[in-house]
Amino acid sequence: MSELPNCPKCSCDYTWQDGIMVVCPDCNHEWDPTVVEEDDDVTRDANGNVLQSGDTVIVIKDLKLKGSSTVIKGGTKVKNIRLVDGDHDIDCKIDGIGAMGLKSEFVKKA
């Protein structure tokens, strides 16, 4: 009998096979052990496209700025982004507003 892998989500070692899928009884995570997972440190936009520093992105919805009455309108183009680690994974400058951090889930690649 082959050794089943530990759960990639919770590291539980009591996994079991269900057809081609492996199932974790603790967190109910299912995965195909033959499929190689992509790197977690890849930053993706709202559509799943990979973002890189220097890309141009478009804001997909109106975003209120915390502590201000200013709003970044959906459709605003942001040029020359820089990817950083943290909650807000994009550093950028927006014309008329200035330097700020954005979350990649609120932009799409232009």
TrEMBL record:
SUPFAM superfamilies: Prokaryotic SH3-related domain, Zinc beta-ribbon
Domain of life: Bacteria
Entries under InterPro entries matching the protein: YjdM, YjdM_C, YjdM_N
A Pfam family hit: YjdM
Domain Protein YjdM N-terminal: from-to ranges: 3-32
Occurrences of domain Protein YjdM C-terminal (ranges): 44-110
PANTHER family: PROTEIN YJDM (PTHR30305:SF3), PROTEIN YJDM-RELATED (PTHR30305)
Record NCBIfam families: phnA
Family label: Belongs to the YjdM family.
Name of the protein in question: Alkylphosphonate utilization protein
Protein source organism: Mariniblastus fucicola
Lineage: Bacteria, Pseudomonadati, Planctomycetota, Planctomycetia, Pirellulales
